[in-house]
Write the structure tokens for this entry.
Amino acid sequence: MNTLKKGKTTVINIPEAVGVFDALETLQAAYYNLRAVGFSRYDISLLGDQAVLVDQHSTR
């Protein structure tokens, strides 16, 4: 991890990616693909609207 100090601002150089998914199946495929290429489950964060998640869960 590269840390640079610029004045009073600390900049940490960590690569990140963000994805937006319209379907649960697409999200799951992306998650499984990340795991398949070596990403730890601890390095993957998921965010979602609670109402959408409850709706998705109840339709299964």
Notes: The chain is about 35% helix and 15% strand.
